[in-house]
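REVIEWER CHECKLIST
Item 1: Sequence provided? yes
Item 2: Single chain? yes
Item 3: Sequence as submitted:
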Amino acid sequence: MTSSAPNSTPSVKSKFLAGLDSTALRHILDAAQVRRIAPQKDVTVSGGRPDHLFLLQAGRARFYKLTEPGSEVLLLWMVPGDIIGLVSVLANPPAYAASSKTVSECEFLVWDHGTIRRLAKAYPQLAENGLRLALHYLEMSMKRHVGIVTKSAESRLAEVLLHLATESGKVQPSGVEIDITNEHLSSLSDMSPFTASRLLSKWGRDGRLSKQRGRVTLRAPESLMVA
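Item 4: Structure as written out by the authors:
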């Protein structure tokens, strides 16, 4: 893990920094540190003290809960612009409710608890943005729960793939590449790895996508809209 002073302009857009004028934005960014964290390293741990707020600038991270037997339930696939540790904006924050870990090498803007509290008081827009982000993540969770009850496994997996393609996919001549494993896809889609693998194999035979180790390439994303 390395740290350095940030630039005065963020490398990605984030809803957390929306609506702030240039002076406020410069002050907020100047108060942050840049941290680069290697792949498969903890960012936050469930039950831990919420000492920092992290804004993901580059890379991918996963946000998850561990079951009693020790299995991961993937809650969010974090992409640049997402926030980890939003609870630290509160004056007396509860412990981190879930864990997060880098998937690839990541770069974060990081504010400690005291700093982000002072900034939220100085710039109420920041606190409002934090509330809007919390509501956004809550809405995503509700949609996912409704999907489990009302949608087929095929529809859920197709929606997850299309969302990932939009948020973090890389456009290549062969299609839109998404770096993700079958295991993580199955968890995000709320199905067994066997079911996810079966559907991916079926779509591979149909020519909708191709699957390599840790990567899915959507050859015709629009074809999944009718899945």
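Item 5: Key structural point noted by reviewer: The two ends are 42 Å apart (CA to CA).
Item 6: Recommendation: ____
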